[in-house]
Each structure stands twice: as C-alpha cells, then as structure tokens.
C-alpha cells in the first residue's frame, strides 16, 4: 500500500510541476485575519489566456500576491513554472492596478518601461538584467507608447498609463504575465487592441492571468475562467464556468451572460431601465 501511495503522490506532483501554474489546496490570508482564500486548487497549462473573476473581497488580490511570492501559503502548495513563486519571479511580468501606482513620481515613460528589467515591485530590488535599448523600444512600440517616451508619466491619460505598465511587464519577455485589472476604465477600442496583444502573446506560448470584472469579455475572448469567491467556485472554459447559476451564486445576485450577434453581455435582469447592468458587467 505504501509504495502505491507514494507513486500516486509523485505522479500528482509531476503533473503540477509540468503546469505553468499549479495551485493545490491553497489556504492563505493576512496575519490576524481569517483566511482570504480557502482550499483553492487549479492547474493552468502554458499558453492560455485566463480570466480571474469574482466579487469584491473574493480573494483575487490575495491569490495574485501568492502567485507573485508576496504572501506565503498557510496550507497547500503553489508552483509557478515548477518552482516556488519567489524563485520564479524572474520569469513573471506583473502589471498592477493603475490606482496602486504613484503617478506623481518624477519619471518618464521610458524610465518606467526600463524598470521592468529589475522588478522593483517585489519590495526588494533584484539584480538588474541587461536589457538593450532595442528591447525597451520594442516593448513601447508593441503597446503604442513609443511616441510618449520622453513624457512624464503624470501627464498621461489613464489609458496611456495602463499601456505603459503593460510595456514594463513586456520588457523582460516573461513566460507568465499576471495582470491586475489592465483594461479598467479603457474605452472599447483600446481594450480590443489590448486583447489582440494578449492573443499574440498566447500564440507565442505565454501564459496570461488577468484579474478582471469584465465577465462578458472573458466569456467572448478568453481560453479559461477562474471564478473565485474565497473558494474556487468553478474553473474551465468560460462558456461552462460563466453560467447564470455560478455567477448568481458567486455575486449574490441574479447575473446572466447572453449573446446578441457578435456581442456578448453580462446583465443583472431588471437592474437598469434599459435591461443592462452598469459598466462592470458589460461587454463591448
């Protein structure tokens, strides 16, 4: 019996280590508080665009911080590219919420993009990897901010600031991107451009984890959805996860996803005089 059990454990660990991200029975949170997430388990293969969805307070930020190695698991196991999250940081590009950044800091667009090479957002500066001028320029070109290179970041619009943060994540060519509300506040056209870039990155074999409130967009454009409400409510193909039943259970109110032609919408019935829910649930 013992050898068989050990073989099963080894096989399970091997599968987890082969995934781009593997989370096994994760429970964690903050000192002096109840767990923010409990018993969360999923595995993400390389080369997928994954939407992380859940109501406010569901534990999305806690999960992101754990994947980045900023929070230690209380129980369970987390592997990023087969390594402990802290060891895998060199392979991860992170884009924080724009609201978490001090945009009054005296830096140009070019300065901020170049910062992606040494990852100051982990709380301690790690050794700087030499990044060529061409690499920095290519990252700015890819998100359409090269013409803004000499501009102070405080002078930019919200949409421009988000594109700068994305360029900063791109500059070291990571295997995994973890993006926290990258399209919040963007107009439909700019968001579509960002999604097209996500598709390109996935085609290159990159893995993207995107925390978002745009349920309809995940339903329409993403490969996988993780629906979180302290525990993992559902995971899998968006069309299977983002159902009326699971969304209503997670958000505590009646939510439906439906399609009209090529458009997808998430709506709370009867919540709006025109039958459409406010922006956080609308598709484009």
The gist of it:
32% of the residues lie in helices and 23% in strands. With 284 residues, the chain is of the alpha/beta class.
Q: How would you portray this structure in words?
A:
The chain is an alpha/beta fold and 284 residues long. The protein is 32% helix and 23% strand. The protein contains 9 helices and 11 strands. The strands form 3 sheets. It has a 6-stranded mixed beta sheet with strand order 5-6-7-3-8-9, sandwiched between helices. β10 and β11 (263-267) form a beta hairpin. α3 (109-115) packs parallel to α5 and α4 crosses α5. The longest helix has 17 residues, at 2-18. The N and C termini lie far apart (55 Å). The model is unreliable at 1-16, 120-127 and 270-284 (pLDDT under 50).
Key phrases:
alpha/beta; six-stranded mixed sheet; three-stranded antiparallel sheet; disordered C terminus
The termini sit apart by 55 Å
Helicity, as a percent range: 25-40%
- Helix/strand class: alpha/beta
Structure annotation, total helices: 9
Net shape:
globular
Strand content: 15-25%
SSE series: HEEEHEEHHHEHEHEEHHEE
- Average pLDDT taken over every residue: 84
How many DSSP-defined strands? 11
**Major sheet:** 6 strands, mixed
Topology, element by element:
Blueprint (H helix, E strand, L loop, with lengths): L1 H17 L2 E9 L5 E10 L4 E5 L6 H8 L7 E6 L11 E4 L13 H7 L17 H11 L14 H13 L5 E5 L7 H16 L3 E5 L3 H7 L2 E6 L1 E6 L1 H4 L2 H8 L4 E5 L2 E5 L17
Parallel strand pairs: 3-7, 3-8, 5-6, 6-7
Antiparallel strand pairs: 1-2, 1-4, 8-9, 10-11
């Amino acid at each position: 019996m013992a050898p068989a059990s050990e073989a099963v454990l080894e096989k399970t660990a091997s599968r987890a280590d082969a995934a781009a991200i593997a989370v096994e029975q994760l429970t964690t949170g903050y000192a002096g508080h109840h767990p923010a997430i409990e018993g969360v388990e999923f595995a993400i293969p390389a080369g997928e665009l994954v939407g992380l969805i859940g109501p406010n307070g569901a534990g999305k930020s806690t999960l992101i911080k754990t994947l980045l190695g900023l929070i230690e698991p209380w129980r369970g196991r987390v592997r990023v590219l087969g390594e402990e999250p802290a060891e895998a940081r060199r392979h991860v590009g992170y884009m924080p919420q724009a609201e978490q950044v001090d945009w009054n800091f005296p830096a140009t667009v070019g300065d901020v993009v170049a910062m992606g090479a040494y990852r100051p957002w982990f709380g301690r500066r790690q050794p700087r990897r030499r990044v060529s001028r061409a690499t920095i320029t290519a990252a700015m070109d890819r998100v359409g901010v090269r013409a803004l290179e000499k501009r102070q970041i405080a002078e930019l619009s919200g949409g421009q600031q988000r594109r700068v943060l994305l360029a900063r994540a791109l500059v070291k060519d990571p295997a995994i991107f973890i993006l926290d509300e990258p399209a919040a506040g963007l107009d439909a056209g700019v968001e579509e451009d960002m999604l097209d870039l996500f598709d390109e990155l996935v085609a290159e074999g990159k893995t993207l984890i995107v925390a978002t409130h745009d349920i309809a967009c995940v339903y329409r454009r993403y490969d996988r959805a993780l629906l979180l409400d302290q525990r993992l409510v559902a995971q899998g193909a968006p069309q299977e996860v983002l159902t009326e039943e699971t969304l209503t259970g997670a958000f505590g109110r009646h939510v439906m996803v439906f399609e009209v032609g090529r458009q997808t919408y998430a709506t709370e019935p009867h919540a709006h005089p025109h039958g459409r829910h406010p922006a956080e649930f609308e598709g484009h």
